[in-house]
Amino acid sequence: MRNTLLGSLVVFASLLVLCNTQCYVELYDKNPEDPPDECRDLDGVTHKLNMPWMTENCYRCSCDETGIHCCNTAAIPGGFDTTKCKKIFHKDTCSYSVVELENPDKECPVSSWIL
């Protein structure tokens, strides 16, 4: 009974993590003119199959024969006082900070982050 309960909790925790991830898939039809070992993203840039790259918006992507798979790498603040604070995205470090609306030099406490 104990092992069954533990196994159920592990499965539930895994599903919870998967549901909170920020990923997407771009399905595409391969252009016959493209080399067989490459894919082309929405910006027209070609990438080698199964070789990851980072987008300017901090998504880690890779492609295979079915499409381009991308996941956010920046942890997003989720637990803070939105009436007194705002989140700011920093592209150069792929990170967020949370600061007071009235005093942007002062950071706000954050209780949870979503990745």
TrEMBL record:
- The yes or no answer to whether the keyword Signal is present is yes
Signal peptide location in the record?
1-21
Q: Which GO terms describe its cellular component?
A: extracellular region
Record's keyword annotation contains Disulfide bond: yes
What compartments host this protein? Answer: Secreted
Which terms are listed as keywords in the entry? Answer: Disulfide bond, Secreted, Signal
Main localization of the protein described in the UniProt heading: secreted
Family recorded in the similarity comment: Belongs to the beta-microseminoprotein family.
Name of protein? Beta-microseminoprotein
**Source species of the chain:** Oryctolagus cuniculus (Rabbit)
